[in-house]
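Write out the 3D structure for:
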Amino acid sequence: MRFTISAETNYRLSRITLCVDGISRTVDADEDEITVDGIDYKLQQSGSDIILYVDDVYAPVKVSAAASKLITYDHSVIIGKMQNCTVSASRTGVDNGGSVTYTVTPQDGYQLSMVTLRVGDRQATVSVDSKTIKVSHAMLSHPINHYPATV
């Protein structure tokens, strides 16, 4: 028996569950097999679909899946390597005109002195006393430690 498992548009399969005769097992969608009650069943990627092969089964079989929504943005938010501080962002991407809040936390014994914003291949660095950073069409305004950026 062959099951083709598909996600709806703008979704990606994340988990696959196979239940055979009341015994179930769930695996990540990128696995190549699922084992239920000691028997291995093959999972095969086929584009964005997954094909599950269930052979020689003489009991009730149920297949289910979970999918996560694909989120696409005009620009990815990437935090580069930091020295003596940690930086986090409120989002993983931003659309044109959107905003992202950055939180910069110096390590113990350090104080934040400069902030750099890079948009594409352009960047600007200012002291933390500055009220804004301008890079091309992007501007960063901040109170210290919280940096919303508009791209």
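Residues 117 and 123 are 5 Å apart (CA to CA).
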